[in-house]
Amino acid sequence: MAINLQKGQRINLQKDNGSTLQNICVGVNWGAIEKKSWLGSITKEAVDLDASCALYDEAKNVLDVVYFGQLKSKDGSVRHSGDDLTGDMSGDDGLDNEVITLDFSKLSPNVNYVAFVLNSYKGQDFKTIPFASIRIYEGTPTRVTEVFATYNIAKGDNFSGHVAMVMGVFYKKNGEWKFNAVGEPTRDRKLQETVETVKQNYL
Fold first, then answer.
1. Of the given ranges (3-17, 30-44, 75-89, 102-116), which has the lowest mean pLDDT?
2. 33, 87, 173, 186: least surrounded by Cβ within 10 Å?
3. Cα distance between residue 56 and residue 33, in whole Å
4. pTM (2 d.p.)
5. Longest dimension (CA), the chain
6. What is the C-alpha end-to-end distance of the chain, expressed in Å?
7. Taking CA 19 as the corner, what is the angle to CA 14 and CA 23, rounded to the nearest 5 degrees?
8. Are 53 and 114 in contact (CB under 8 A)?
9. Which residues contact 96 (CB under 8 A, 6 or more apart)?
10. Burial degree of 153 (CB within 10 A; 0-12, 13-18, 19+)
């Protein structure tokens, strides 16, 4: 049974059978903006959101960033499925537009935090996007084996006027990995700024 995460909720990565998740997919799904003309016709505006992943050490130094311009981390633990420039133009198809995979067994030992962030490349306001959600699951970018957790990130007035957000942070505590569902919009405009905001406020 998938956990419906709430903002600020912290969870461990233990499954019902007692084993721990080792290979994680973080998928982001979002829709195109609908615009109605004064004549009543509806057009769709493509939405270019960018999911990214930043790795930090215990001292909160940035070790690596995986994004549409660098699709793999240096240690090979994180991989990005590639840039989606439009979102779901024909309504929610139930599939993720961008997927970042994380293999905890391949993470460098000095990595203590793995943060997932979302930026609106064209500066399109999150509030105007009809739906946007993340899910954490076992599988591959093209196959969902078991959904571990879901998190709706596009509801609430606090997203209005924002084009960047921190989705969540995996963090190591006493040798075990846990997840903090942050779900907070930020004032940032660029990925580099969001990576710094994570360092200052969410680790």
1. 3-17
2. 173
3. 34
4. 0.90
5. 61
6. 28
7. 80
8. yes
9. 27, 28, 29, 81, 135, 141
10. buried
